[in-house]
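Just wondering, can you check both lines?
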Amino acid sequence: MADLFASGRVIDLILALVVVETIALALAGRMPALAGRLPPLRRLLPNLAAGACLLVAVRAALVGADWVWVAASLFAALMAHVADLLTRLTSRTVKSSGQHPTIAQ
């Protein structure tokens, strides 16, 4: 078990689960029974990307990678997080104004 963490493979497994989750959400969004209940995948991708970048940063730290890789992964996570926030704020503004997204921009 210690080797699983020391080698960073535990993060590889979690990243694989994130990929599976993304695929499942994409497929579920196409199902008529769930289509109206789930947000579009394009609105979920920045959040998933931010989490994946944080996982990559943890993996880099676990395996003793150069600090530049950890910092780059954290910066990528920050950019994905900002994109997620902008997506959410834009979505709320459009909903509260009652305008169509293309009209609001």
The chain has one domain: 2-104.
